[in-house]
What we know:
The complex is a heterodimer.
Chain A (H helix, E strand, L loop, with lengths): L7 E16 L4 E17 L3 E5 L6 H8 L7 E6 L2 E2 L5 H7 L3 E4 L13 H12 L4 H14 L16 H13 L5 E5 L7 H18 L2 E5 L3 H7 L2 E6 L2 E7 H6 L4 H8 L52 E4 L2 E3 L17 H12 L1
Parallel strand pairs in A: 3-8, 3-9, 6-7, 7-8
Antiparallel strand pairs in A: 1-2, 1-4, 4-5, 9-10, 10-12, 11-12
Helix pairs in contact in A: 3-4, 3-5, 4-5, 5-6
Chain B lengths: L8 E12 L2 E13 L4 E5 L6 H8 L8 E10 L2 E2 L5 H7 L4 E4 L13 H13 L3 H14 L5 H4 L9 H13 L5 E5 L7 H18 L2 E6 L2 H7 L2 E6 L2 E7 H6 L4 H9 L39 H5 L5 E2 L10 E2 L11 H6 L2
Parallel strand pairs in B: 3-8, 3-9, 6-7, 7-8
Antiparallel strand pairs in B: 1-2, 1-4, 4-5, 9-10, 10-12, 11-12
Helix pairs in contact in B: 3-4, 3-6, 4-6
Amino acid sequence: MRDTTTRPLVEVRNLKMxxxxxxxxxxxxxxxxxxxxxxSFDIYEGETLGLVGESGCGKSTVGRALLRLYEPTxxxxxxxxxxxxxLSPEAxxxxxxxxxxxFQDPQASLNPRMTVADIIGExxxxxSGLSKAEKLARIYELMDAVGLNRTFANRYPHxxxxxxxxxxxxxxxxxxxxxxxxxxxxxxxxxxxxQAQVVNLLEDLQDKLGLTYLxxxxxxxxxxxxxxxVAVMYLGQIAEISPVDALYAxxxxxxxxxxxxxxxxxxxxRDGARQRIILKGDVPSPANPPKGCNFCTRCPxxxxxxxxxxxxxxxxAPGRMVACHLIHPIDAxxxxxxxxxxxxxxxxxxxx
Amino acid sequence: MPDGAMPVLxxxxxxxxxxxxxxxxxxxxxxxxxxxxxxLLGVVGESGSGKSVTMMSLIGLLPSPPADVQSGQVLLGxxxxxxxxxxxxxxxxxxxxxxxxxxxxxxxxxxxxxxxxIMAPLRKHMGLSKAQAEARAVELxxxxxxxxxxxxxxxxxxxxxxxxxxxxxxxxxxACDPEVLIADEPTTALDVTIQAQILELVKELRxxxxxxxxxxxxxLGVVAEIADRVMVMYGGQVVExxxxxxxxxxxxxxxxxxxxxxxxKLGGQRGERLQVIEGQPPILGFPPTACPFRARCxxxxxxxxxxxxxxxxxxxxxxxxxHDVACHWSPEGAEDPSQEAAHA
Lengths: 352, 344
């Protein structure tokens, strides 16, 4: 396992990201799409936190808000000691090198009129005072690191395949020696045989450079492979955060359970072995989430209290946080303190 | 064919070439397969492997030019669709062969109600009156599990969610009781929980209606779950074909074997590192003279460069019935393949 120290690199507290809805002739503010609604979690130095959920659950919004590509509605986001959510524009600019992003679609996130060297070198122009020769040396170094042939430095993105383009995006993200990288569905646009190449590259770079990842994906099998801990999101909130093996062995939240059971397994012999939970209906609109637990409209285990009271994220087992009325917290007196206790305990166990 | 069972659909030696300004692309090379009544054939391959182009060639859905279906036979109940006139093809599409596309957002017309889109093939192909068509449309929506069907007929596609739209697409494809349903990545654009709903629906419909289905996907998990038989495509060719359990237990083609190893599993041991298939899929600029997988193949030798391997039976059964593979290499003498697949 990777080295996980007790220090969280990223601390998110009560993050809310609402997008306003304006309607009518006067464009009056009539409501909000609650894309992310009051979530708290930590990411420890050197670990990969997987963030999974269905489309529209707010996982990409979390990734973008963390890097303040959106202005969060409320909450604190502490990355390596600074509250990113409240930094002044100038301080934020100085902070940018420590936190970077790899985007989903390498086709759309690379400027087709810039050469590979320009693309990878742009962050260096912005944030470092390197001379031309130093810059080129750094670009070559980065291209080597991600497995791109140096001789392609003056080519344009269209000359590369999807997997190679994703490598360009990763090289650009690495240019300024970041500590923290948000990988937003980095393999979703790639073919199966290419996905493994990119995931292996991300893992190698993590080992070599001590990177911390937030790995956003809807591919639950790949998240199981790459993540140390996994957060399951539903309708703007976190349903469960658990260490990866514990979650996949026995998901505690009914949504996590249904989500994992829905993944088809590439093994035709196991038909009867797994109990599939088919969720009825669709995800409600985040502009008008249901009262009580946000999963109560589809939950197969729903009880009356779910329609009334919103469950809090509480520690249900060492290192496992679950927001569900059916799951009892291990210690009622500690339950008030969200996130911290459980996560710390977990990391101490891992550190041994 | 043995037992007197006749395939509903038989494709022989299909070749499709695209003529573009940048040169020709040999997208489908000598593809043959058949589909038995009530059978579900899974077609697996990466983007560019020719799986969608093959199916679209069958029923004349490719614009020509640039597409050119050069040779082959597509026999639907004895009729060769490649020789059919556009008018005859129109009678086949929708009526005898239903098609479900990948993206339910773009394949429904946003300016017509869902009801009118389901009723169109019913009135055109089956000559139903408006009232009859409407009654049948309600039946179809109920069949695919859309609640409050009669009211929903008047809704527009944007009023449906992704999963519901795919259900509508399936309803349209099923409208005229086709003999064959071709589903091109029907769940790829959907979330896993919704995908599970659709897979469940398809299993149910098969039991009720017993139609033959071709299911195109790149997701081996989906194939393992619903297919009876699997055809693996690479570089515009069929590289391996086998009953589903046989393919997963005893994969013969190096591409299939590598593919099964690159995907991480949901259960079992968590691997330290993913196996990769190095390199990129081929660009099909010329008619194939060598094995399309040779550049990425761990087992390639001189013959792979000199000669494009033909499909040969693995288990002695005639082609397309048992297990066949297009490869010069044989895993015998190498590691035991069943062991390799068993850790899945």
